[in-house]
Amino acid sequence: MELETLLNHAPSPIEELTIPVARRKGVRLFIKRDDLLVLPAYGGDEAFSGNKWRKLKYNLLAARTGGQNRLLTFGGAYSNHLAATASAGKLFGFETVGIVRGEEIGDDNPTLSHCRRCDMQLEFVSRADYRLKTNPYTIQKLRKRFGAFFLLPEGGTNTLALRSCSEWADEIAAQWPAETMPDYICLSCGTGGSMAGLVRGLRGRSIALGFPALKGSFLRGEIEHMLRGKPAYGRAWEFEEAYHFGGYARFDERLIDFINAFYGEHGIALD
Ligand SMILES: *Cc1c(COP(=O)(O)O)cnc(C)c1O
Description:
By secondary structure, the chain is of the alpha/beta class. The protein is 41% helix and 18% strand. It contains eleven helices and eleven strands. The strands form four sheets. Strands 7-6-5-8 form a four-stranded parallel beta sheet. Strands 9-10-11 form a three-stranded parallel beta sheet, covered by helices on one side. Bound molecules: pyridoxal-5'-phosphate.
């Protein structure tokens, strides 16, 4: 598949959701269907979609332009970014290497088995070693071991990813009634790269409201760091920190019930 496919896509649709409790409070709720921005990956798995499409597109172009045919990246055993990178390799003809946090777990994890089906080479490292993933010495060792590669940081979050996430803002503005914008734009946050890009693109036109999937408020610092030099956006984003359900990839019955009920009412599968 040609990489240009990633650039020339129609805007993902915006749909209104009917939610009685919101309506009673005078809130209108819309959903931007980035889940419909999807390429069928290997064996019908749809692992290349949504913000991963956006975050990877300029990176894949940069890799191709730079003559790199191998991508190396990092992620946890349930990382959608790892799965998307593996799909990208299969779809666009890159070799892929995934450095996975924690001990090897069996093939029963759908994320990792998808990566394997896409021929991603997986390397499992201890949590202590994983923490050194941005250390230049670590990268140097990886280059010795795997040869030249295009480096994608954890979650695919880098300047090129922020650039394409910033495009969300104008895309939404073009779909929204002229001269107006939503009061809030809500999104889930892992590394916060999507949120930082969105805030940049919005330039204060809406407030970005992030829901971190991880415990702790360290993400504030990360976002501030990514927005450095743009202090004016300090008030243009907020976090709602009570919905991590114990951390990344954790869940309880309440969350599963909510996902199922939402699917039943709106036909949209939440992640
Ligand atoms: C990757 C991912 C996120 C987090 O994106 P960041 O840019 O790392 O914050 C949120 N939701 C879903 C469904 C994802 O796959």
